[in-house]
Design brief:
The protein is an alpha/beta fold. It is built from 6 helices and 9 strands, in the order αββββαββαβαβαβα. The longest helix is centred in the C-terminal third of the chain and has 25 residues.
């Protein structure tokens, strides 16, 4: 079955569940999926039920799609994403973004837990740009002309207008929202201290194992993007030991600010 056929099949299945014409997509990273529990008039679908959909195997990723009303907008939220390091091909990693676009999403808010190079644990960072060091590009292969051009421009992959709204909202809420460059790697190993020194020289402010493929596909599809990283730990070389338990613990600590910020941003997006 072709990729386009898979997208249409999945779209048709979600339509039968009452999932139609969301305004925005939400991709909720490690420990951040609790925001989906605040969606009203919710339709909840387990990933295992959805045809052509991947499986989320990482702690902190619930593996459910939630559709409904949040901050006055129709949203399609993913409680957990698919990672390349889980053994998923890029087609699977980015498939939900394709489906969001097919369903009519105007934009997407992509969140992640990331290691801090320029910022410390507990920081919320609006992504201004990214560096793709995964060695992969999800657009390799046949181009889906229905979605976008063969050679898409990535100059404004993280939509400046969305970021301006996010900064204004954060200020009004008294939440410090930093800005910076996200560097994407494949994982699942954390980076070495030497790699982090190199990444810092390259201009990275945070490093993580997701987001970049999804944003590339969103930009190709003409979707506007707001990316927010929750800095959950110092990157290698800045602290003694790295572990996923700390990632989940820090996201638990900052989740109220995160949820309040995302809801307020949604209410203001055009």
């Amino acid at each position: 079955m072709s990729l386009m056929s898979k997208i249409k099949e999945t779209q048709a299945f979600l339509n039968t569940k009452g999932i139609t014409e969301p305004d925005f997509g939400l991709i909720l990273g490690s420990g951040l999926g609790e925001l989906a529990s605040e969606i009203e008039n919710a339709v909840v679908v387990d990933y295992a039920e959805i045809p052509n959909w991947g499986r989320s195997t990482v702690v902190g990723h619930a593996g459910k799609l939630v559709y409904g009303d949040l901050a006055g907008r129709k949203v399609m939220a993913l409680q957990g994403r698919f990672h390349f390091y889980e053994g998923n091909p890029m087609e699977v990693v980015t498939f939900p973004v394709r489906v969001m676009r097919a369903l009519g999403c105007k934009g997407v808010i992509v969140t992640n837990a990331a290691g801090g190079i320029g910022y410390g644990p507990g920081t919320l960072m609006a992504i201004t740009d990214h560096i793709n060091l995964t060695g992969q590009n999800p657009l390799i292969g046949e181009n889906l002309e229905e979605f976008g051009p063969r050679f898409p421009d990535m100059s404004d992959a993280y939509t400046a207008d969305y970021r301006q709204i996010a900064n204004k909202v954060a200020t009004s809420l008294g939440i410090k929202l930093e800005g910076g460059v996200y560097l994407g790697v494949t994982g699942p190993t954390y980076e070495t201290p030497a790699e982090i020194r190199a990444f810092k020289t390259m201009g990275a402010d945070a490093v993580g194992m997701s987001t970049v493929p999804e944003v590339i596909v969103a930009a190709h599809s003409g979707m506007k993007v707001l990316g927010i990283s929750a800095i959950t730990n110092f990157a290698a070389g800045f602290q003694f030991e790295l572990n996923h338990a700390e990632v989940v613990e820090v996201t638990e600590r900052i989740k109220e600010n995160f949820k309040g910020l995302v809801k307020a941003i949604l209410a203001e997006l055009p």
